[in-house]
Amino acid sequence: MMMSGRLVQGRGGLYTARDENGQEYVLRAKNRFRREGIRPLVGDMVRFTPGKLDEHGWIEEILPRTSYSIRPPVANITQLIILLAPEPQADLLLLDKLLIFAFRQGIIPLVLVNKSDLDDELGESIKKSYEPAGVRVIAASAYEKTGFDELKGLMKGHINCFAGQSGVGKSTLISRLTGFDLETGAVSRKTRRGRQTTRHISFIEQDGFTLLDTPGFSLFELPDEVEPEHLRDFYPEFTDLQSGCRFEVCLHNKEPDCAVQNAMEQGSLDPGRLERYRILLDTQIEKRSNRYA
């Protein structure tokens, strides 16, 4: 008997699917998925054949995805909640990459500055830099449970994925939001870097919330298919300015009469945001050069 459900966990080649009644089934993916280069992801809607007694069942079909990510490996999310914190030091280049990923996939990005009890100025600084791009930025403290009402309101109606560096407090935050006792860890005093505590992706449905807790990471690269001339399309604050550039296809890389450069010099565009854009632009130009070398 064929059934339908959502993959809520994947570990060691075994997947857990949850049907609409909340019943869970342990499954394996058929070999044809591997031959076809398809990997089931947490969040996938699937059709499956349940196993008998203690036997596992089989994933028969992965239904079309609305979005997907390889890092973190999840599918069908509608809102990406990107966590930053005063410790470990906020990696804004990683943030910019994750925003580009969200914009390319049609996913709503939300930037959450956690640990605001340690530094309430970081949240204001991030707001000033990113709200011109239409990105919602909120501050919260998992320790003091501040900012939770606003966060919960923004999470409703979405499949939320928490992502960010190790040590920014994802597990603690989710524990406080849901009441789940998730393993947490501290920032290393020696390196000021986070220790990864979440090792597997968890799909959590509780009290009207749907969210995924993913392992922290410090590396995330843009795919090769993001062509240099299209990178600017994922910077909404550039869009209204581009008509003022001398060249129709202006890469905003210090070309003459570049309206984006002028806006930065006049103080209406965050210089760090433009600087990091140019770092990513150089990377994509190099990738294309290597592709045709």
Please give a structural write-up.
The structure is a single chain. With 293 residues, the protein is an alpha/beta fold. The chain has 3 domains: 3-64, Nucleic acid-binding proteins (OB fold (Dihydrolipoamide Acetyltransferase, E2P), Beta Barrel), CATH 2.40.50.140; 69-213, P-loop containing nucleotide triphosphate hydrolases (Rossmann fold, 3-Layer(aba) Sandwich), CATH 3.40.50; 228-291, Ribonucleotide Reductase Protein R1, domain 1 (Orthogonal Bundle), CATH 1.10.40.50. 28% of the residues lie in helices and 24% in strands. The protein has 9 helices and 13 strands. The longest helix has 21 residues, at 271-291.
Estimate what percentage of residues fall within beta strands.
15-25%
Q: Which CATH class of the largest domain? A: Alpha Beta
Structural class: alpha/beta
Shape from CA axes?
A: globular
Shape-level CATH architecture of the largest domain: 3-Layer(aba) Sandwich
Question: Topology as H/E string?
Answer: EEEHEEEEEHEHEHEHEEHHHH
Q: Can you give the helix content as a percent range?
A: 25-40%
